[in-house]
Specification:
The structure is a single chain. The chain is 38% helix and 18% strand. By secondary structure, the protein is an alpha+beta fold. The strands form two sheets. A three-stranded mixed sheet has the order 1-2-3. The protein is elongated, with a radius of gyration of 15 Å. It comes from Halorubrum miltondacostae.
Length: 124
């Protein structure tokens, strides 16, 4: 197979990128994810951070108040990123290796999100 025929991140990533501030209550994050039908948001005040549905569910399961608990309190930090030119197979391998379902796409700045759902939808 010619490398030019293989799928790149830019062809599959979710855009536009959805973001949220670190000081927002997790209830706002949950609503945004529900309303946009997505499962992660890039945290604009975190520097390499995202908040996922799993982060929010874990906080609620622990009994944390969704209005008083902020995104910064529960966000996933130091998240690996990918570039738009990476091949889909490479991203799938990274997700497996790191045990994650979301990788922000960076091209100088954040430009999209790559999720395991994006990959599954593309190959099905």
């Amino acid at each position: 197979m010619d490398l030019d025929d293989r799928t790149r991140v830019a062809d599959v990533m979710s855009t536009p990128l959805e973001t949220i501030g670190g000081d927002a209550p997790i209830r706002n994050a949950a609503r945004r994810m529900r309303d946009e039908n997505i499962s992660a948001l890039v945290v604009t005040t975190g520097g390499g951070c995202i908040v996922t549905q799993s982060d929010v569910v874990a906080a609620v399961a622990e009994g944390r108040d969704p209005e008083a608990t902020t995104v910064r309190d529960v966000m996933t930090q130091d998240v690996e990123t990918v570039t738009p030119d990476l091949m889909l197979e490479e991203v799938a391998a990274m997700m497996t290796m790191y045990g994650v379902k979301h990788l922000p796409v960076v091209d100088g700045d954040y430009v999209g999100m790559m999720s395991s759902t994006d990959i599954a939808e593309h190959i099905s």
